[in-house]
Structures are given as C-alpha cells and as structure tokens.
Amino acid sequence: MNTTTKLISLHGGHSGQYCSHARDLLEDIIQRYIELGFTKVGITEHVPPITDSFLYPDEKKLNLTTADLYKRFEDYIKHINRLKKKYASKIKIFIGMETETYTGYVDHIKKLTSIFQPDYIVGSVHHIDDNCFDYSKDEYEKIALDCGSYETMYEKYFDLQYEMIKELKPFVVGHFDLIRIYDGGYEKRLLLPQIVQKIKRNLMLIKALDLVMDFNLRALKTGAKEPYITTSILKRAAKMGIRVVPGDDSHGVNEAGGHVDKAIEILKALGFDTLWPEPRLLT
User: Fold this and answer.
1) Mind listing the pLDDT tens digit for each residue in 57-84?
2) Residue 141 and residue 153: Cα distance in Å, rounded?
3) Cα–Cα dist 26/216, whole Å
C-alpha cells in the first residue's frame, strides 16, 4: 500500500467553455487543481453527439447542432493541449474524453479517438434505448416505465455497459452504477440475483482487461449518501483486485477536487492500492 497518496481525479474538469451544463473557464479550473495540490489530473470533456437526436436538453435550448459541438470539442482538444504544455512544470494533465453509449457509438467513438488522439477515454453509459436517463427524474421514470420495471432498466444498463467495455476498452469505466441515480431503493435492487450476475460479469471483464473504475464523487455534491460506486460493489471490486481511482466529475471551479480526500480515505479503508496508475489509450 502506498503511504504517500497524492490527490487525483481521472474524471472531471468539465468547463463552461466546452460543456453547456458546466461553468467557468477551463484554465481557471486547471489553476484550481494546482492550488489544491494536485500533481496529476485527467480532463475528460464529453464527446460531440453522432446526430442532433442525441443533443442534451441544455444544448437544444441553446439551439446548438452536432456540427457546433464537434467544433467546440475540436477547440477543447486544442486548448487542453496548450494548457498541458503551459502548466507542465506544475501539474501533469491527461487529456481525456468521456464517451456515450447509444446507437452507432462504437464507430463514432473510435473515429473521434483516431482523429483527436486523447491520452485516454472514460467509458460511460447515460442512455437506455437511446434515451438519456440521468438528466432528469421524469425522464428516468419514463424509461423505467417503458422498460417494464426498474429491474429491467438496470439489466439493460449493465448489458449496455458490458458491450461498451468490450468494444471500447476505456482506461476508466465511468460511474459504474449511475443507473441508480434517481432510485431510492437502489441498495436492495443492486443485490437482486439477476442484477448481481450482470455486475459480476462486468467486473470480471474490467479485471480481465486491466481497466480502472471511476470512484465518482459527483453524487456527494447532489446530496447522495455515497459516491458511485456503491459500497456493495466497491467491496466486490476490492476483493477482485480491481483498481479504483477518484473522479470529482467537476463542472466548475468550485467543484474541482471536491470530496477527493474523503474518497481516498474510503478506498484506503477497503484496502485499495492508492498508487494511482497513469492513464493510457487502449483502443
């Protein structure tokens, strides 16, 4: 066990410049990480959508198009490359991008990866049957209704996640159990045999591919009692020797580094190694 644990986030740094539901300038966020004592950080902006049908509500409200978001992502990559060089003596910046998982995503993400050559990718699932489940509680409930039950929705989520992990091999698997976001009864649901089977299967694939799981702290900002990953899954990952790394999932200066100290305490208590691995591109 490493005893000189350093602050890190491998999922975060969304800024108001390149994300419609974030705030502040990207450089200000980088400066905040430096102020907090971070020596390494992963900045993981959302990828542009494949078509306008996958625009988020905030993007639609601003009348943005797929072309607009592609250009914005292009600007992000250029900017973060400049900042990586500018602050190299103070902080090691890993340039990342956060994926989506919907119809056509595999070729789309592989093409973006080839064009932009990020240091690594964060593999995330925010959609069920091409509908975004984590943007609003109303949409979440509608998707559960369309699936026939919460349980079926969970099963679909973990099946999509398994496919995404297998196809993209993301260095970081983002917020593993995000599907519980608006479910007050998630703790019992995540222990149902048919759901546990899929969780175990996905964890085995993560272990086999030597990937990292994101200990995503954004849930704490919204008042949840624990981060994504929930304790039952976290303990299983610890027993399997899977690496887990904090991700503040920050969307502004005041969120940068949020709860990372607490995350490190939790991970150490469960026996995780906190000698953090350096991100790399696996696809």
Assistant:
1) 999 999 999 999 999 999 999 999 999 9
2) 10
3) 20
